[in-house]
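Hi U.,

Before I forget, here's the chain from the pilot set. I'm dumping it here mostly so it's searchable later in email.
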Amino acid sequence: MVGSSKVEEYFSQKKPSVFFSNLPFNFQTYVVDNYINLGQLTALRFLEWVYHNPHGIIALPTGKTPEFFIQWVKYYLANWEREAREGILGELGFLPNEKPAMHTLTFFQIDEFFPISPWHERSFQFFIRKYYVEGFGLNPERVHFIDTFNLPDWLREKTGLSNTYEVFGNEKIDLQLRWRKPASIAENYQKEVITYFDDYCQQYEQKIREAGGIGFFLGGIGPDGHIAFNIKGSSHYSTTRLTELNYETQAAAAVDLGGIEEIRKKAVITIGLSTITFNSDAVAIIIAAGEAKSKVVADALQKNVSVEYPATALTQLTKSRFYITLSTCKQLQLDESTVNALQKEGIHYPAFADKMLADTFVSLRRSLKHWVEENNDKLPEAINRLESVKHQPAHDLANQLFTHIDSAIQRGITMPTQQRILHTAPHHDDIELAYFPLLHHLVRSASNKNYFVYCTSGYTAVTNTYLLSCLQGLYNIQTNTFLQNHFIWEKVCCPGDAFSDITGYLNGLAQQKKELQDFYLYCRLARRLIQHFSIPDVRRLYEKVQGLIEELKTIEPGRKEPAIYYSLKGWIREFEAELVWAHFGVDYENIYHLRLPFYSDEIFPQYPDFEHDVKPLLELMERVQPTIITMALDPEGSGPDTHFKTLIAIAEAIDHYKKAHPEAEITLWGYRNIWSRFGVYECNRIFPTSLNSFAVLHNMFNNCFISQREASFPSFEHDGPFSELAQKIWVDQFQELKLLMGEAYFYESNHPMLRRAYGALFIKEMSYDEFCNEIKFIRRLLELKDSMNYKI
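Structure:
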């Protein structure tokens, strides 16, 4: 049942939502094509609620999730009369002269890091002031902020400290002080402050309840399924509290606060799950976009109510909803009638039927050949469902899947020759983490020409702590006689001698002399600083470095920095990538750093534009004239936003290149690494990976990607270096192949690459026409965004 919302009734009749409206989920669920449509649906439902509840109590999310919700709300508020007369607002029954009153609403902040300054650009209070108070026109006097920075007068007088930063310093928040005896005066003050904030949380909860509870709650869902900061395992009766985070949530927040080392020191204040459900008439909406959220969304929608799945607490509310994109549905268990209906309408993404095929045979724990050869008179229910969906006998389907995988493996072990391969990457380690073992073969072929292009400067992956250590190392050269003798000004200030930094570092690696390795990294930074600032002599270089060190020490991690620090971090990342390919003797001139300007550390980065982001890629394609182009083919809303926006820029550049060269035959290789992965049914080039390849991968990663050794910005799936997670993914993929194909297929094969296989890389190879079909969803999304910008 849709309920009383005209907005939800309108969208429930739209595709693809109509196919999901009657499924037995825990929540009424509305499905839209992409995250721009998701923002529109959410904005319209919010405005509808405000229209009917002008003095209501609201709680809205922070972070990247609400980007297009915010844009659509601002658009409709700015164009209310026109849209109510001629547009969708009119269709939904809104009147031109009755624009919702935002200034009469009461707002309660959902959560906040502890401690954090309210003026820190990544504090949630800063976000609320910028996007909801200034952006929506909320009355700041009716906004209840969670302030984890300031102390009351009586506590400042008692401790002699001004704020929570001074109380806790740079140490980890120890909530055990609630019951542990303090071991020092500093800990005694910390205990008092923790007690104060425990009382503060109770009072905040009381304010919400005395106001009648939250009437409209909008939130995202975290990698562990958390709602607000109610992590997996939180009681469904939890209230506002000061609490700790689990690893998955820390990893997701690491990029906001300058690295996981920083977020591990912090606690958080969050409203509880019962805070959200206190008002039984509340509208509670969870929004999610992209394959990366498909597992936690499937759990919330289809698992039993449990503290393991925080969102299931919202089943207590009759007006709780999930608004999601089609790609978020990938891991939902759908009945055959729904899958058939989706296929009939041409809605194949995210390949529901093909996924069902692979998952069904994996669940049988028998190889495809053995299953076909066995007498299967009594078919499992899963097989009956599969036959109904695919409209073919199960034996035929098993043979087809076997043939598909076998063909992909044979293609994978057949190396391309006489090719000009343009390897593209959003970040400097993306290629290596996707298909490094395959690259060994590609770069060793004398008949292939390999070119490597890094689309962004990647500076957000380098911590201030690491950069500071590099600058201090450079500054300390002047006190080390041995290094001073190697630091030849005439060579360091010569731009054309940059390759000597690479060979010097690798010689230090060969000699197992870390001091030499560090020295040549410092030389690269010196070289770039000299060029950037036109530094005339070594004395002024050290003065400049000293100034940079002193300034960097004053910058809180995660905060905005002067542009020179972004440049320094980017130069480090570029140096690291060059080290990798120097291992293989790749021509230094075949490595390109584009530093596309769409990339930034803004919460909502801009989209690529032609002149600044697409044109440099197009010019490079004209120069290289590639026959194969590789690219990160991550689905919408999965992994770093940079991956998706880089794909947008590359796709447009390829379109222009093909238009100028219609005769050019280009093969596209889509890869995925640690942020998302292909199903076996999605790839058509499978490369077996050996144990030796794993060892080489880790050796390369630890020796070349030196800023990444500490895994400061890790995946929520693995607490450690990315190379370890890459190996885990390749091994998991191989285990699935081994189940489907049987061990004998590999270990009794005549081909040595199969006999030595313990992992597998998945690549999706496409012609240009196939690529265009693959990215139709991107084109639809961009058309929608362009039309939205045109309206605005």
